[in-house]
UniProtKB/TrEMBL annotation, chains A, B, C, D:
Protein name (Swiss-Prot/TrEMBL): thermospermine synthase
GO term, biological process aspect, one: polyamine biosynthetic process
Domain of life: Eukaryota
GO molecular function, one term: thermospermine synthase activity
Active-site positions on this chain: D159
Reactions catalysed according to its record: S-adenosyl 3-(methylsulfanyl)propylamine + spermidine = thermospermine + S-methyl-5'-thioadenosine + H(+)
EC number: 2.5.1.79
Similarity remark: Belongs to the spermidine/spermine synthase family.
Native organism: Geodia barretti (Barrett's horny sponge)
Length: 284, 284, 284, 284
């Protein structure tokens, strides 16, 4: 491959980086909260980059967003009200809204400018989900919002940037925050959070900590991992609930997907969860 | 991360490359067949690089070698004689020899110099397996060897470099070669081959072709994929046999591992195969 | 320095490349003749890149354009009519027009789109020179234009992309083309051409060939070299004439600059030419 | 150019880096004082890298070492005793010893291990100069050595790593150190120091400061700059003396070189100094 041209460089772990050839830089700037870039590449299409980290790309965001949303939603028998923390691209919202049972989705993303940039530049991510009448979109602190009380949620989906010490989301991965979130869950409610890199060399960055923190706050916790090509590594998710997280066997799960989700899925199906959602595989 | 210092650059797919910070270059040269490097890095320890492509690394080779060897070996009820094509590092040989049933392992690696470099520089890969009295090691063309007739094998493990047009192994991924190999399998015999990258952006490079070729030559074929960190992507394997490839349920598989393999495994266990060895997931 | 972020990579010579951190990609596309990018960086400001090679940057283009234009113009006692081949950014035109003696400047740049992109994106390069009433700008083949006959020129300035075999300008560095150009020079006329990299490792790519070709076509030839930071190497220029190329001593040259050029120069002065314009230093 | 393979990355200035394809890493380790690498590349041959910065390369070290040593030596009418601070590769020593007048050369390099690595790995740098009977080599602090008194020197050559705050040589670029060095100069003595990058974007890193510091400590100071390809930029030198630094005209200088230096030079000659050693060109 040719070295010449324009490249986006991103670190995967200490001493390891990825170079992605760029087709265009659609936006490069900063909001009140973070640096933002919207990039375009032959390999991954359009991507959102926050503080130098790829959040999702047009080509493979379905793997990430389906893995984040559907296992958690399907653990709940009938999710009507859903809370989304973060998720500025609108892909998480899109997957949540595909559940026929959903009557309201409340999305809180602190950074209004990021959401506006995504609406303008990433139409294949959100696919109009922000215009769905079931959606309430607010730009404020998710913690304060959850703490302030109000109606409960059946599912809480946390689609936040990784918990870097200097980042905007650091306080949304703590035991304290999870207790606040849990207090807003309806009985039988389920919480899921993206949980950072989950490969052999990097799963200890935050994945195992998040799993263990959630295991202490909730009665049940399950970990999942999936390969997201744009992240160059396995990616982790953690699902937690005080209700049991019981896997359906394969045919039952495929039937549940067909019955409860109003569109075909591209990644998640009955063949995936036994391999992907296995708490026993989270290293101590 | 700091850009300065020494780096190894490797392409993952067109327009995408990985930079790995180097601790040392232990060997850099060429044999009669290929360019060879033995590198050392903080992230992956010692690694073998052939014609610019990472073959395996000290830190994560167990994921690759266990995934290549054990599912195939365990599909066979009692593998006594095993053929290995390629596998110069000795890691495949090491895993094969861990099966208590194995009475002979015949390893054919064309490139004597590569094997000698691995014996000298990669002790944590081979761990002395070349000295096992059950081993016959020869340096010649695997195809000619298999074609020349002789005793049959219960399992054939192909651990070859990817089928690049200009590479040494191109002719060892063809329908013609697979028929030659099959002719040397004992009744009920199993063949497995490493099958190249298996992620969303690159599984069509060779993985799907290999699966479909083997599906035509054998009655049964199964595909597996696993994340190998040093390859920066999912990696594919294909298992083929004229005997049915029947999965044991989880407890049975863990028991089989404990009963048949003389050492603890680090990656492969009863939790893995349902998610990893699923022919249905190979795209058309 | 941090590796993360967006970078422009350019090769300097075989096995050597430069990475420049990008602030923005202002344009990326292709015209009928070549790939074009307008980049922006902290280090060099806005730059024009044609077929992957940096042509000039906002921060240091004055070094290149003054070195290309002024020594050649000052070798001529009274240049009134000037021909410019290439020079799409308008920087060469700007320096030519700064000579009080110039009555007409005819600029032929094949690629109309590049010139329009430069007019739009590189105002600090051309600084309005395209609007000067002395300028005739045409978009056609420079060779055909010169060959077609018409008024002669006192100075011909060739500011073309390097003579790559697949490039647009390859035929404008030949002995045949130089004879065509020479035929359009008025008596005592001077020709100057940018001549590619002139550092120790790369001066043989084209610099020495151009010097020797011009030495055969003209009675006198002189070579100059100057360090252009954005090119990461010394850069070469060759001046040729049938009239003697006689250096003025330092005070005389400073006086000539002050008398003949209508603006202060930023790089070229009496201290530079003895070190920079020395035919003896071109290797055989 | 191909991205794949092994590369050495070095920063030139903020946001700008160079990638050099490596042929081999001959040594990589650390002494008591600094990180040391001996690299080998097709472009530059063998090179010494200290704390990540290239010090000199086999292919172009003659440009650096001739430019450091000869102008300063030739400003002195008859240099018999020379002091060298740093210069572990032995190239500076080699050039000093080429002066027929030299009776003794005292080289103080703090880091014995670096000198030993250079003697072992860089024979084309030192070319046996360490074995010359006129040489005294010591490994101690240059400042303490000069301060401790003893015989005076006709020329002091400082070939130290750049004055980085965390580096070993920071205190050897101060006004205080220059006064100590000056006290050891014989009447009419000359001091020269390498002075860091001297290109448009980076000459203010240390070059201008060194020139101004030396201008205050000595009656006369002269700056030189030369393009060293391996440094990817112009490089600065500063010469200082209480005796006038008077340039000889070109034929006289060529004669002086022929008369006083016992070998042919490859870079420095009568054509160079007027362009290279010009105090007026150091920006304020």
């Amino acid at each position: 491959m040719e070295l010449t041209g324009n490249w986006f460089a991103e670190s995967v772990s200490p001493d390891l980086a990825v170079l992605l050839r760029l087709r265009a830089v659609l936006f490069s700037g900063a909001t009140a909260y973070q640096k933002v870039e919207v990039l375009d590449s032959e390999v991954f299409g359009r991507s959102l980059v926050l503080d130098g980290k790829t959040q999702s790309t047009e080509v493979d965001e379905f793997i990430y967003h389906e893995s984040l949303v559907h296992p958690a939603m399907l653990f709940h028998p009938d999710p009507k009200s859903v809370f989304i923390g973060g998720g500025g691209e609108g892909g998480t919202l899109r997957e949540v809204l595909a559940h026929r049972s959903v009557e309201s989705a409340t999305m809180i993303d602190l950074d209004r400018e990021v959401v506006e940039l995504c609406r303008a530049h990433l139409p294949n991510h959100h696919r109009g989900s922000f215009d769905d009448p079931r959606v309430t979109l607010r730009h404020e602190d998710a913690r304060a919002f959850l703490q302030s009380g109000g109606d409960g949620f059946d599912v809480i989906v946390l689609d936040l940037v990784d918990p870097l010490e200097e980042g905007t989301a650091y306080l949304l991965y703590t035991d304290e925050f999870y207790r606040i979130a849990k207090a807003r869950l309806n009985p039988g409610g389920v919480l899921v959070t993206q949980s950072g890199p989950a490969g052999l060399p990097n799963h200890r960055e935050c994945f195992t900590t998040i799993f263990h923190t959630l295991s202490e706050v909730f009665t049940h916790a399950a970990a999942a991992q999936v390969h997201v090509p744009a992240f160059q590594t396995l990616w982790g998710f953690t699902i937690a609930s005080d209700a049991p997280l019981q896997h359906q066997p394969e045919p039952g799960l495929d039937a549940a997907i067909a019955g409860r989700i109003s569109k075909p899925l591209r990644h998640y199906d009955g063949g995936n969860p036994p391999g992907n959602v296995r708490p026993a595989k989270v290293p101590a």
